[in-house]
Amino acid sequence: MYYLLYAVFYLVSLLPLRLLYFFSDIMFVIVYRLIGYRRKVVAANLQCAFPEKTPAERLAIEKQFFHNMIDAFVETFKLLSASPRFLQRRVTANWHVLERLQQSGKKCQLHLGHTFNWEWGHHVLQMNTGFQVLVVYGPLSSKIFERLLLKIRTRFGSRFIPASNMKAAIDGYSQTQYLLGLVADQSPGKPHQAFWLNFLNQPTGFIPGPERGARRLDIPVLFASVNKIRRGYYHAHLHIASECPVQLAEGELTRMYARFLEQNIQKQPENWLWSHRRWKRPYKPEYKDLWIDSVDVGSER
Fold first, then answer.
1. Average pLDDT of the chain?
2. How far is CA 20 from CA 39, 73, 265, 273, in A?
3. 182 beta partners
4. Measuring CA to CA, how many Å separate 127 from each of 104, 165, 204, 245, 283?
5. pTM value > 0.85
6. Residue 205 near residue 191, CB atoms below 8 Å
7. What is the per-residue pLDDT for 299?
């Protein structure tokens, strides 16, 4: 079954991108208008995050988000046959900021959010650095699609580490100069252990693992923002957040990341994953000792 599925998607990936975008437009009608996939979730998230915008403005963001999400889906399968040159032309960044960090011999962490298209991004990152790129991911329930997605994701040298076995997997790279990519904006599975702060106009929990791992190893941390320039073209900005995170107060690195991500979302809101139930675990008073913001819960900054 895997080989049949692989053959089908490989043949689809050979189609010109403009034709794949034609299919993406058809899928938008099915997913958004006919099925209504998570439209209520997206609308509710946008209402909470941007109460100052008009209903028409939020609806425009909602529609463009679904277009971007489906574009990212077809772009991911294009990776089965895309050449390095194809990707290098379509994903650009200030890669030079990695050079000095690589020359230092240190390992690094890269914190980013669910902004499109992260699947293209890590491939081009590996092409433009001497670091071994490691990416933490959540395994899929379908073993066939899990195998197919890993085939796509590791085609250009990136290595993927399951979140369920993260520590043991990373230990296998202890002698390797790696750059560990962490999509650090997901909803925390253990809210009573999360860092909490105001984010997009609402109290939000952030997983503490990325910060604590960086502080424990005292390795440089970079933040990455991704913007969609136009259909099929992206630009990433890499920012060195801290070269010595152990010198920061506990929670400060997470607060810096949340503000960095928030600013990027506000600039291009349609490019973030609004269909995710980001605020499914609400803040509770018993989390007050985990509050890391400089203002009170729910207060405007």
1. 95
2. 23, 10, 26, 21
3. 111
4. 19, 26, 35, 27, 41
5. yes
6. yes
7. 66
